[in-house]
Specification:
about 240 residues, alpha/beta, 11 helices, 8 strands, globular
């Protein structure tokens, strides 16, 4: 995985949320959480796995809605932040944080009702292997996001500390086919890249977000979107 050492550092974990989801980044946090909720639907009493759970933004949110959720990550420091969030929210009994490798998930086939990953596939060195594992352990649903190779992210990708893997639609469709998944829906968003929103105050970001959303609904905006949210269903397995 790209940036593996950087991602596991204590100081990165401690500042992760404040650097990415303060100021205009609050809009990103809100949109990503909405995307997860829309994709997974009602989660009460469902078994859910989050790949690359990080500081537990989504893990805790779903536990608060009644999910029995496992958050898997490679970073102990990130999961320490997640456990503290779970403690403050009073949902420790609904969450298990587990350190592990997303390419070799320690679960049997069809173990979870839904499996999802956010902010993960842009770092993936072997996306086919990761997606195949997500499909293997899910009974019903797989959800993930990608950063897109026709977006403004291309222009500043080289400035990022670990770069990003960018995807085209054709590549994602091939990955889904190889994993035995059927595309159930895709949503494109954020013509303006995430880095732009993190640099401006939240009050100012709202106006840009409105314009971004309006343009994003056009055919050109769809092609220039920075991020895509992919919802897929698991097909019947052969004996």
């Amino acid at each position: 995985m790209k940036g593996k050492e950087w991602y596991q550092a204590d100081d990165v974990a401690q500042e992760y949320d404040s650097k990415r989801f303060s100021r205009g980044g609050r809009l990103i946090d809100h949109r990503e959480k909405r995307a997860v909720l829309d994709a997974l639907g009602p989660v009460e009493d469902k078994d859910v796995l989050e790949i690359a759970c990080g500081t537990g933004r989504f893990t805790v949110m779903l536990a608060e809605r009644g999910a029995n959720i496992v958050g898997l990550d490679i970073s102990r420091a990130m999961m320490t932040q997640g456990r503290e969030k779970a403690r403050r929210a009073g949902v420790e009994d609904h969450i298990e944080f587990l350190r592990g490798d997303a390419a070799r998930l320690p679960f049997p086939d069809d173990h979870f009702d839904a499996v999802f990953a956010m902010r993960f596939f842009h770092l993936a060195d072997t996306p086919a292997k990761f997606l195949a594992e997500m499909a293997r352990v899910s009974k019903e649903l797989v959800f993930f996001d990608t950063f897109n190779d026709t977006s403004a992210r291309v222009a500043y990708n080289w400035l990022l500390p670990m770069g990003s893997r960018l995807y085209g639609d054709e590549e994602v469709h091939e990955l889904l086919d190889a994993a035995g998944l059927t595309l159930a829906g895709v949503r494109n968003d954020f013509v303006l890249p995430y880095g732009f929103y993190r640099k401006i105050p939240n009050g100012v970001a709202g106006a840009f977000r409105e314009a971004d959303t309006s343009f994003g609904e056009t055919s050109l905006g769809e092609r220039l979107a920075s991020v895509s949210y992919w919802r897929a269903t698991v097909g019947e397995r052969s004996d």
